[in-house]
Design goal:
By secondary structure, the chain is mainly β. It has helices at residues 82-85, 90-94, and strands spanning 16-19, 23-27, 29-35, 39-44, 47-62, 67-79. The two termini are 24 Å apart. The model has no long low-confidence stretch (mean pLDDT 84).
């Protein structure tokens, strides 16, 4: 299912808490598109969030509660915008 087809809840709470670049907690999570040790792509109520780093692993995921916990060294957090999505697929941008 394409991201545009998913029902977004922009009024829902969304928090991103990064502690010591090693413990990331995200609320407002609707789905996880993909993940590996270098990147986690998450659908949130505020848009697509791409987390990049090394040795990343999902510690806890609750789609019912909308919570995600990621462990590992976080290098960057970036939200995808619709303008950037027109410039190619999400995976092509991840692996440039």
């Amino acid at each position: 299912m394409a991201y545009e087809e998913k029902k977004l809840h922009p009024e829902g709470p969304h928090h991103v808490i990064l502690e010591d670049r090693e413990h990331l907690s995200i609320s407002g999570v609707e789905d996880v598109e993909s993940f590996d040790e270098n990147a986690v792509v998450v659908y949130t109520c505020k848009g697509v969030l791409v987390v990049r780093g090394t040795d990343l692993r999902i510690d806890r995921l609750s789609l019912d509660g909308g919570d995600l916990s990621v462990e590992g060294m976080v290098d960057s957090l970036a939200y995808e915008t619709k303008d950037r999505e027109s410039g190619g697929g999400l995976l092509s941008r991840l692996f440039r």
